[in-house]
Write the structure tokens for this entry.
Amino acid sequence: MTTLPATQSFGRRIRTEFKPRRVLLGAVVLIIGWEVAALLFTRGMTHPEYVMPDLWYVANHGIPGLSDYYRGAFGGQLTSEGATPSFFLGVLAIVEHSLVSVMRVVTGFAAGTAAGILLGLVMSAIRPVRLAGFGVSNMLRMLPLLALAPLFTLWFGPITLASIVSIAFVVCLITIIGTMAAVGNLEPSTVEYARTLGAGRAHIYRRIVLPSIIPELCATTTLCVPMAWSVLLASELYGIQNGVGWMMGQSLSFTLVDRITVIAAVFIVLTFASLRLVQILNHRLTK
């Protein structure tokens, strides 16, 4: 049996294996880069914290400042009731609004993925539906999808449903295209052999096509995760009164860069955690 050269083997490991130390190294590089940029870029400014605050300032002012967004989900006194902003209340605000945002992303992502796979299979199996729907799907996909989120808020109102529907819509469009591409990439013999044995179309798609396209669909779902979080941010920035995106909008209104930095870091963590979870699920499905 032939073995891969050391350089190719190393490259393959880099591309396919997840190592926590690599993520930690990337975080350290990002922190150092931020600190260096903050010191160099804001040198000589009277109020550098309004432009690019260092991380010490962010930790001591940005996180406690988020106490103003705490709604009392876990008990305790609110700053609107006289409580002093603190690191603890800031963390509670992050957790409270993160849970709301995670619920919206999970619900929208699951609904969009399920609908996208179903519609993609139907369009692949039925020629008239494919001819009618493929062009529409591609046309909608060319629209600025992030700009559609405020439109859903206008249609459904500034409520959770608007955010979920906007996420599901975007994920569904991407998944439809990914599903049809995965079906089109199947070897013709995969389906033809089952058909010669008398299998019907529904049976072929349920027992052969769907399991066969799962590995390729994994790439589509991985692509949809960061898109879902981006759409969530766009939807929560407009009118919705809770969620991590809402906190971002409030901080942007008053140019509170220290708080914006914290919220951006929260988005990075949540997106990365969601991506890892989907990758783990994909690995279990294709193991």
